[in-house]
Amino acid sequence: MEESERSRVEMMIPVELKINGKDYSLNVKPNELLLNVLRERLNLLGAKYGCGIGECGACTVLLNGKAVLSCLILAASVSGQEITTIEGISENNKLHPLQEAFIEEGAIQCGFCTPGMVMTAKALLDENPEPGYDEIKEAIRGNLCRCTGYVNIVKAIKSGSKKLKERRKE
Prior knowledge:
Layout: H1 3-10, E1 13-19, E2 22-28, H2 34-41, E3 60-63, E4 66-69, E5 82-84, H3 97-104, H4 114-127, H5 133-139, H6 151-169
Parallel strand pairs: 1-5
Antiparallel strand pairs: 1-2, 3-4, 3-5
Helix pairs in contact: 3-6
């Protein structure tokens, strides 16, 4: 094996990821971002490449239940951890209550920011099932939306909170 070929092989890092409940074994480059692995290798296109510097929230996913910016995380650093993307929150082909609420409240226009907003909101509601207006605003402050403004997004999160509460009663 030539030295350049050997260095290409040696530069791959094996990772084990659980994404949306499914186990993946991959070899990644040391500098490969989680966002790129999700989109380019696994065809999970919900997380979007927006700014690439952690300022817009379009790439938000859940890492062990916490909202994180996948454009800032090296895939190799999350081996053995659990990742949830927007594709993984529906159950039995039924939208998650937050997804329903975003649609019903008109919190979606172009849709680019929506997956990141929903994932951020999910992390919030998982931690605090009945947040107040200020808590919602604080939670989504890192998610930028250029189309809807934030009034309908906050309404959708409040509505999603109520839907989740009703679902827990069932």
